[in-house]
Automatic annotation (TrEMBL):
Domain of life of the organism encoding this protein: Bacteria
Protein name, entry field: PLD phosphodiesterase domain-containing protein
A family per Pfam: PLDc_2
High-level lineage: Bacteria, Pseudomonadati, Bacteroidota, Flavobacteriia, Flavobacteriales
Alphabetized GO MF terms: phosphatidyltransferase activity
InterPro entries hit by this protein: PLD-like_dom, PLipase_D/transphosphatidylase
Residue span, PLD phosphodiesterase domain: 120-147, 291-318
């Protein structure tokens, strides 16, 4: 029997009582770690594969995974691939046709242009593969060379979680609903699945469909934090709810650390984030910049017992525009593993202090950061407003 979780008043999470298998929750790193696991999972599929990602590129890594998917289809495995029409817009038609000719069912989420809509704000931002309702990878890693790296180039800094537990069954149903457009606007509380000593939940964020689970989980975790918060964030521009929760945590004396991009694939956003550095430092946050590669990770650890990894960025676009999915893990052991990884990243990063910021924050640089911040916030407002217009139009019809 399911029963309500009463650990905190705000939570509507439900525990699902299932047999404890073993501990089947593993942290996965970008690079060969992720793609070797992905290949192995696909190669072992017997019945059904769902792969959903924002970016699938026609490069060495993309072709490697495409080959695995085609081989699975030849074994009579049902293969469903859902790609975002904007994120994967560069994928050649011939690439998609080749997948289809090998029996793979491929669909692009929300073409950028349709007969009656200009539709850019609401994107399918998942990065998921789930196989046979048994095993899954969920995180922030797209299918492209830059997430793999090579002998001379570091992969983009990112993470995923491998699930070998009943949460995979839940995840496969969610992926199937998205692929076959069975999504419902009905708000159903998330389930926490037993996985050995851990509890694992799949969180969705799709504001237009009344799904705000990732944003709510972040906010609740920050509000109820007692000791420490560590966040690695790409495109880090938290909205008012999460920004307030972070600042309140700092006021309560919690050690709050953020790992941000020293190198970014979107320099305008990096400058916009730097505009907030003085405010962060004034609230006694610790800031570290990773400069070995692009920061693309979206993960957090709170009090060494609650963790989350996924596609959700701490900004308004993820909160109110894109369709996101994270995994939350209630486990001291997993939190210790993730925290050890983030400690390693911190040791290899540059700390940003008031002194170092003043040294590089000349008048021109500060004005450029301010202009970038205004431009990015305005753009995000515009991109999140467009899907709302479409939603209201459909509602009126």
């Amino acid at each position: 029997m399911d029963h309500k979780f009463t650990g905190r008043k705000q939570s509507k999470t439900i525990f699902q009582n299932v047999p404890n298998n073993a501990k089947y929750v593993e942290l996965v790193h970008s690079g060969e770690d992720y793609f070797a696991r992905l290949k192995q999972i696909i190669d072992k599929a017997e019945k059904e594969i769902h792969l959903q990602t924002y970016i699938f590129e026609n490069d060495e890594t993309g072709n490697r995974i495409a080959t695995c998917l085609k081989e699975a289809a030849q074994r009579k495995v049902k293969v469903y691939v859902l790609l975002d029409a904007y994120g994967s817009a560069a994928l050649p038609d011939s690439f998609a046709q080749d997948l289809a000719q090998h029996g793979i069912l491929l669909r692009f989420f929300s073409p950028l242009f349709s007969l009656n809509n200009f539709y850019i704000g609401r994107r399918m931002h998942h990065k998921i593969v789930v196989v046979d309702e048994k095993i899954a990878l969920i995180g922030g890693i797209n299918i492209a060379d830059k997430y793999h790296g090579n002998a001379t180039t570091e992969p983009w800094l990112d993470y995923a979680v491998q699930l070998n537990c009943p949460a995979a069954e839940n995840l496969q149903k969610l992926c199937s609903d998205y692929f076959f457009k069975k999504g419902s606007s009905k708000k159903i509380p998330p389930v926490l699945h037993s996985a050995g000593n851990a509890l694992v939940g799949i969180l969705q964020n799709d504001w237009l469909r009344q799904k705000t689970e990732v944003c709510d989980a972040y906010t609740n975790a920050l509000i109820h934090a007692e000791k420490e918060i560590v966040i690695v964030g790409s495109y880090f521009l938290p909205g008012s709810r999460i920004a307030k929760a972070l600042k309140e945590a700092c006021k309560r004396g919690l050690k709050t650390t953020v790992i941000l991009a020293g190198i970014s694939d979107v320099p305008l956003v990096r400058r916009a984030t730097e505009h907030l550095y003085f405010s962060f430092l004034n609230h006694h946050m610790q800031i570290y910049e990773w400069n070995k590669s692009v920061v693309h990770g979206k993960a957090a650890v709170v009090d060494n017992k609650w963790s989350t990894v996924g596609s959700f960025n701490l900004n308004s676009l993820s909160c109110y525009g894109s369709i996101e999915m994270n995994v939350e893990i209630h486990s001291a052991e997993f939190a210790e593993t993730l925290r050890a990884e983030l400690d390693k990243v911190i040791r290899e990063s540059n700390e940003i202090t008031g002194k170092t910021l003043r040294q590089r924050a000349g008048l021109i640089n500060r004005m450029a950061n301010w202009v970038s911040y205004q431009m990015v916030r305005t753009t995000m407002l515009f991109l999140t407003f467009l899907p709302h217009l479409r939603f209201l139009k459909n509602y009126r019809l």
